[in-house]
Every structure is written in structure tokens, then in C-alpha cells.
Amino acid sequence: MSLDSILARIDADQPAALDRLCDLLRIPSISTDPAHAGDVRRAAEWLRDDLAGMGFAAELHDTPGHPMVVGHMDGPGPHVLFYGHYDVQPVDPLSLWDRGPFDPQLQETPRGRVIRARGAADDKGQLMTFLEACRATLAETGALPCKVTVFLEGEEESGSPSLVPYLRERGDALKADLALICDTGLFSESVPAIVTQLRGLLGEEITITGPRIDLHSGMYGGIAMNPIRVLTKILAGLHDETGRVQVPGFYDGVEELSPELAAQWAGLGFDEGAFLGEVGLSRPAGEEGRTGLEMLWSRPTAEVNGITGGYTGAGFKTVLPAQATAKVSFRLVAGQDPMRLRDSFRAWVEAQLPPDCSVAFAPHGAAPASRMDISHPAFEVARQALSAEWPGEAAFIGGGGSIPVAGYFKEILGMDSLLAGFGKDDDAIHSPNEKYDLSSFHHGTRAWARILTGIAAG
Amino acid sequence: MSLDSILARIDADQPAALDRLCDLLRIPSISTDPAHAGDVRRAAEWLRDDLAGMGFAAELHDTPGHPMVVGHMDGPGPHVLFYGHYDVQPVDPLSLWDRGPFDPQLQETPRGRVIRARGAADDKGQLMTFLEACRATLAETGALPCKVTVFLEGEEESGSPSLVPYLRERGDALKADLALICDTGLFSESVPAIVTQLRGLLGEEITITGPRIDLHSGMYGGIAMNPIRVLTKILAGLHDETGRVQVPGFYDGVEELSPELAAQWAGLGFDEGAFLGEVGLSRPAGEEGRTGLEMLWSRPTAEVNGITGGYTGAGFKTVLPAQATAKVSFRLVAGQDPMRLRDSFRAWVEAQLPPDCSVAFAPHGAAPASRMDISHPAFEVARQALSAEWPGEAAFIGGGGSIPVAGYFKEILGMDSLLAGFGKDDDAIHSPNEKYDLSSFHHGTRAWARILTGIAAG
After folding, report:
1. Angle at the Cα of A310 (from A308 to A312), degrees rounded to 5?
2. How far apart are the first and last CA of chain A?
3. Which residues on B lie below 8 Å from A308 (Cβ)?
4. What is the CATH number of the domain that holds B400?
5. Which residues of A touch B349 (CB under 8 A)?
6. What is the pTM of this model?
7. Does A284 touch chain B (CB under 8 A)?
């Protein structure tokens, strides 16, 4: 049976696959640092050459920033688009690294063997699992079981400024039946996961203006309206006593979790106490009557991410400031319309303004939530593939944050995404001594081989 | 009659008096700037010499900062202590001055003649009104009608760090029946005023801590407690819908305005709309059912003077911060105990903390309000003296801010203060092009002569 031979080849080829990953990890492709622009390009070229070596029609597409790597290979089955990113985070503080961030090394640790380097997990190690799966499949069978487009970005760690323009201009060539995105993690050490829903994000900055100028509270305190008082009053009304958001219409369109997902999530045995204990907390602070995973994945939120007004330096100044500002964000779930919510939030704030105060709003993004159509057969294929590689049954989980590329694929190309990744919580992505478990690399590669074969059969 | 001859001498001596004031104004005695320490001392020496020239037993008393000028002259009547300060504010931005800040000049303006220089009004011009009154009295009568101690400080514009230690150590020699403080203003162009009550100030900084570290709202939003949410909820509860402060016991001991003062204040014709209109406001924001002057002078307040938490830079960051901080101040009136209120405020905040949150408090001053005993005959003497010099009847008014020295005189020396000053709202103290009206200087000098004579007769 050809899948067995592909998996056997993956097993046998691990040392060579790790050598290739080390080659890629040696290139310091820090996208945010202009001094590394040449290195970023070098990583793109390395990947283009690797794809071309496997027989992909591979090209670099220049952008105003770093290039996109695109490789196509025809196949008989459905068309899948694989997305990963080859750029990495900066490495400072360098003094906290045990060795050079771009001098990758295999290490034994109490929890297994790891490969340690910047980008090992995020995202070079992860993206190479897919390429290695293709390589082994091609070596064993001479072809891929489905049509595959590989699309690798070099600006993910610096805000992806070129991504949307690129997708709008040249996205047609990337349009596939499904996107496969490998930039997420396992649910736990033993339980792999496929992220099927991601929250969206609406960001709003509100600035309340009271008096024309800052006032002295000795001269004006008591008679003059203080915009901090107005702002705190408004923000304090964001949630009621049960944690529900009070902006009118906020929950319009928000659906209850399906019984299937509710059962799957309950089966994950999420330990709220342990999760919160890591950051010094003990009790879930969200809506009463909701589970911790609902609070994180399927319930919308309102949070104040920043607030400032008046004198905030050392000591004290009895000022009544002219202005006070807050940055407010809403994590959104499927069914919520960001633009309608923005209007509703602004109207709600305006309705609470006392005489003599005005408000100015600045928008900071409005991305809807993503909820994948898990009836697409690839989701069950992927669930079985991951379940076969890890001890626990794979779960369909949610994500509390957004993975913008999944939203763009949906919005611009009309394409759902299947998000499967093999990172662990202790991978230290974005931090010193980033690592990727060799077991993640190995089982991840095997999982993609299973998925490709399964999708083709599907 | 000797008062008439004293007043006549004051009138005749105006040109020489202005020359002396110009001499003093030429000394750039900026107390906060170490580069000007020698100038500050020079101003002190100038005043000591001027006092000694009149026959005062005058000395400089060194402090760790700038020296105190102290002059004593015996007399038959009660003992009064005159307080003023000879240091001035910095002058930047220098580019906004029409001429050198220490190059005083007499100017004609549409609203009368003025002397323009840094310190003209605050406080060199004001303190010289008293010295000129003494000079004219001495010249006409050969003696002062009461025992007078002159006490001039050189650190008022830089927080008076040496004042309290000095008063504790050497204050006995300053102890008098009443202090006369000349560092305030007229109520209006035509209505002079004596400030008989000043609000105190309690400053508290509160820092709420939630999670141990800043969190990403994608990963933790919805389940983790956000300290900004806790802080805004607490601050929003500082006032009820009618503007009353909700800290338990806040109004304990607060008295209603006496009918006499209520009538006097009502007679001032305070124009709330004009007062607020100058700073872009239109409606009093204090307690419902109170007049604007009550809000400013006789009612206690709670204000948030500063607030900060989370990300406050340009753009947006979806952080759930570990901490949020606010600086809160209370303007206090007679009858309120700052230390009891501090305890009550802290307990009130603590009682509102949800699980997983802690609070830290930092004290920023606790000064009680001052309310002078206006039954002391000098108050009526002063009211008549000022009424004789300006078109309108002089009023006993309140002050919204604190004049710390009045509190220290009361607390350390057990001495009430009579605050009479002749500044105008448009004097631009602390700002470029500071000025003092020659009419303020002239009538202020005459008023002090009347007061000294009146107190002696009283």
C-alpha cells in the first residue's frame, strides 16, 4: 500500500529532512529588520529551489516588501493550497540565547529531542513538514495525489503588508478547494488539534474631550467636567455584573456552540485552573455560566487594551485634563458583523456623553470571525490523520485570536482553511531559545502525507 | 490725620516705589533652576537690605535650599506676620515674551498701565505693596502702628521644600496674632477679595494588578481578568448620578455655608457661563443643586487626575495588561479629616476588588482645608480697607486650591491667615509676558497702610 511506503520513507529520511531544515534555519530571515532583507530573500530562494528540485513549477513573486514563494504541481485530485511563512521574529535579547539563534542544534531534553533555533517552530519547522511530506510522496509514487499549490510568505512576522494587495492582484492563481495552514499548535502534549473557528477583531480608539485645555483642579475642580470621569463611566458600562457586553445588539447573530463541538470541547478536559494559574489568576472572568473554552473560543468579548488621560508620570499633578483616550477591542465570533458593531458601539458611546463633551473615534481594524465549514471531507480526513499520529484523538478546536491569512483567504479568494499545526506551548516562539520537537516535525510530516492521500481518496 | 498723610505719601512716592520694584524684578530669582541659585540669594539680600534700610532687624536665614528673609520691627499694637515669596517661575518658552522677562517695563494697555516682567504679579509686585506701605508709614509717623514680622520665602515656586522644617525649627520667632499673606487676587476688576477658606487636598495613587504579566487578548481575552476593567468600574463609582462622591463617610463633618457667606457669595454675581466659557465648557459639572461658587470653594470633590494602563502608544496592541493605575485627588473642605478619608477610600476600593486582583496605594499628600476665623477683627478691618480702595465692596471668598503656607501656619504655628492680594485673572502668572497692574500696586499699597493702621486701632 502506497501510504505505508510513503510513511516508511518519511521515517527513513528523517536525518536528511532535519539537515534540510537546519540549512533553512541558518538563514536569518528577520523580516522586520531592513538589514536582513537580503537574508529574507535568500530564504525565499532556498525554498523556491527546494520546491523546484521536487518538480514544482516554483517562482519568487516580488512585492514592495519581501517576495512570495509560489510553487504549483498538478495532480489528479482536488486542489489544495498550502500556506506557511519563511520569515522569523527578531532575536533580541540575544544574551538570553544559549547559543546562536541561527546556529541550529539538535538537543536531548527531559521531554524529548528538539531542534533549537529562531524559526524552528514558527514557522520554518512547521512549513517543512508539508514539504517533506510532498518529497516523500513524490519519491515513492512519482506524483502528488492531488493538485498542490505551495504559497510561502516572508512578511508574517512584520504585519504582512504585501499580502492583501498580492491576493487581490494575483490571488486567482492561488484559488484552490481548500487552504491548508500550518502555523498553529497541538491542543496538548498528546492531543492534536484542527482549528475550525477563529475569533475576529474590531478595534476602536475613543477620545473624549471636555475642556478646551488642561485645567488646574484647584481652580476648576468641582465645576468643570473631567473627561476621565466620562470615559471611565462609559467603559465601566461595557460589561454588566454577569460579564455580558452591554453594547446594544452585541450578541445579534451569535450562535450557541453545536452539540457536536460542545461535546468535543468538553472531552478535551481543559484545566481552567492550570491555564489561569500560569499567569497568576485563578478564576475565569468572562460571562457567567460559560465554560473556559467558550470564553476563549466561541464567545465574543470586549476589552480595554489601553487607557490614558491626565498626568501619568512620577509624582502627582492636580490637572483636569482636556482629553482622555482608550483603546477598546472586541473579539468577534461568527454571526457578528464588525461594521454594524462599530456603528452600534459608537452610537452607544455618543449617547452617554454629557453636555460639553465630545468624542472622536479612530478605527483600528475590523476583521470578522472565521468559522470553517467542517462538513468539507478534508476536515474528517485531517482529524483521522492526526489521530493516527498522536496518542489522543484529534479535536476540532477554536482559536481565541485571529490568524489574518485565514480571513483573507476567505474574504478575497472565497476559500476555507484547514488549520493544522504541531507546535507546543513550550516552543518559546518569539522568545529566546525557540525550539521545535522532533516528534512534532516527524509526526507532522507523516500527518500531511496521510492528509494528502486522504483528500485525494476523499 | 496720620492715615491720610501716609496715603498721600504713598501716592507721591509711586515713581520711586516702581523704581524699587523694577530693581527687584531685574534679579532673575528662578528658584527651581540651580543655575540661578546665586540670583535667588541676590534677591533675598536685596530685600534684607531694603528692610534694614527701613529700620527692620533683618536677616537671611540659610536653609538647605534658598534663604528665608526675616525682618522684625516692634510696635505698640498686635503682632502681625507678613508672608510673601521672592522667587519666580521659569520663563520658558522665552520666544513668547515680547521683551526680556527680567527687563521690566511700564506699559500703557487698553485696560490701564502695567509693569511687565517675570514676577511682577507673582509675587514680587504683591510683596512690595506691603513693604511700600511700611515705608510710607515709617516715613510719616516714624514707627509702625503694630509689631510686624516680615517673612519672605525663596522656594514657593519649587514646592517649598525648606518651609516646613524651617517653621518647625525656628517658627517660634514668627508666631504672631495673625498672618497676612499677599499671594492671591481680586475677585474681579472692581471687587477686591479676602480669601477666608481654602480647600485641602488628599492625593492617592491606586494600582490594580490582575495577571502576573501582560497577556495577549487573542490567547486570554474573555477568560482573564483585565485590571483596566476593574479600575474603570471603581472610578466610575466615585460619583453618583447627581455628582455626589460615593466614598463612605465622605461628607461627614462637611458643613453648609453660613447664611452670611452665602449672601456675600450670591452678591458677587459670579457668571458661571463666562467662567466655564473661557475653557470651552458651558455647564457646571458638580453636585446637583449647588451654585458654581459652592462647587469651587465650599464643596469637596473627587477627581481622577491621571489614568494609565495597557498600550497607549500610536496604533493598537491587543494586550490585557497586568496593571492599571490612576491618580485620584480629593479637594477637601473644613470638617473633613484627610487621614480618615484616606482610610475610607482605600477600604472602599479594596471592597470592590474581584477575585485575582490586588491593589497597591501610594499616598500623594494629605492637607486639610483651612477655614479662617473671620470673627478676628482684622478681617473686618481688611474688608473696609479694600472696599475703600476699589469701586466694589470687598468680599470674603473661598479658594478652590490650597495655599500650603496658610495650612502650615495654622498647623505648625497655630496661627490664622488673612489672605489679601491684588492680582488679576489676566496677569499671566507662570506664563510669558507676566504683568501687574499699576492700579493693583498702588491701591494694594494703600490698602495695607489702612490695614496696619486699622489693626492697631482695632
Report:
1. 70
2. 17
3. 307-309, 312
4. 3.40.630.10
5. none
6. 0.87
7. yes
In the listed set B308, B336, B367, which residue is the last one of a domain according to the structure? B367
Contacts of B231 in chain A (CB under 8 A): 232
Parent domain of B428: 2-198+370-457
Is residue A358 within 8 angstroms of chain B, CB to CB?
no
* Closest by CA position to B405, among listed B254, B170, B194, B180: B180
Compute the average pLDDT of residues B379-390. 98
pLDDT tens-digit map of A371-400: 999 999 999 999 999 999 999 999 999 988
The CATH number that applies at residue B356 is 3.30.70.360
Quick one: A111 and A246 in the same domain? no
Over residues B281-306, the mean pLDDT reads 96
CB-based contact, B458 to chain A, within 8 Å: no
pLDDT digits (tens, 9 = 90+) for B165-209: 999 999 999 999 999 999 999 999 999 999 999 999 999 999 999
On whether residue A204 sits in a domain, the answer given is yes
Burial class (CB in 10 A: 0-12, 13-18, 19+), A37: middle
List CB contacts of A382: < 8 A, sequence separation 6 or more. A194, A394, A418, A420, A447, A451, A454
Q: Are residues A418 and A396 in the same domain?
A: yes
Nine cell digits for residue B24? 527687584
Taking the Cβ of residue B212 and every Cβ of chain A, the question of whether any pair is shorter than 8 Å is answered with: yes
Q: What pLDDT shows up at residue B318? A: 87
Distances (CA, A) of A442 to A18, A57, A112, A114, B342: 9, 26, 13, 11, 62
Q: Which of A351, A367, A383 is the last residue of a domain?
A: A367
Q: Hey, is the C-beta of B400 within 8 angstroms of any chain A C-beta? A: yes
Contact: B215, A279; criterion CB under 8 Å: yes
Identify whether A135 is part of a domain.
Answer: yes
Q: In chain A, which among 167-196 make CB contacts under 8 A with chain B?
A: none
Pairwise CB contact (< 8 Å): A303 & B354:
no
Whether pLDDT at B243 is above 60: yes
ipTM value, please give it. 0.87
